[in-house]
Amino acid sequence: MTSEVQDPKVLYLYLSLSTGTFANSSATSRMETILKSNKIPFKAIDVPTDDRARSIWGRRKGPNQKLPALVRDGLVIGDLAEVEEWNECGELKQRLGVATGAAPALSQKATTSTVDTKPTVTSPSASTPAAGPSSSTTAAAAIAAEAAAAANKKKEEAKK
User: Fold this and answer.
1) Which of 4, 9, 34, 65 has its CA 20 to 30 A from that of 154?
2) Where is this region: Disordered (predicted)?
């Protein structure tokens, strides 16, 4: 089996391609979609075929964490359940240390009740700080408006 030297600056998506179950495939796809839609760079590693990844996963995962999961610098940052929660609350980039370039929040037991600060969320067309829970709705509306404008432009070009 292979073992890859892992760069401590890279965010790794640990996954298992060998399980072959629909649930695992769906979870992996969901995790990739969240990361890509937030423009978060990552590198996927198949844990069962990588000795180093298997060793890190076996030693560092939390008792309830499952693959797929995000790992950086040998530490498990979060699994799909945590990443989905952070994404829905607008905390994903903050938790992964992407938005500010700061070190990620690595608490394995972090929940929404343990976070006291409001995250900063930006949409692709604006760079203003978020103002509470409706910020994800505002960002989604901005993205939808951009998509609608692009669709209208295509329709106009098709008529010509």
Assistant:
1) 34
2) 100-141
Q: Left, alpha or beta for 52 (phi > 0: left; psi -120 to 50: alpha)? A: alpha
3-state secondary structure of 4: coil
C-beta separation of 92 from 114 below 8 A: no
According to the CATH classification, is domain 1-117 in 3.40.30.10? yes
pLDDT beyond 60 at 116 = no
**Confidence band, pLDDT 50/70/90 cuts, at residue 71:** very high
C-alpha–C-alpha distance, residues 40 and 96, integer Å: 9
Which DSSP category does 11 fall into? -
Do 128 and 134 form a contact (C-beta atoms < 8 A)? no
Integer angstrom CA distances of residue 145 from 33, 139, 157: 21, 10, 18
Q: pLDDT confidence of 150, banded at 50, 70, 90?
A: low
- Between helix 22-37 and helix 80-88 the angle, nearest 10°, is 40
3-state helix vs strand vs coil in the chain, percent to 5: 45, 15, 40
pTM of full prediction above 0.90: no
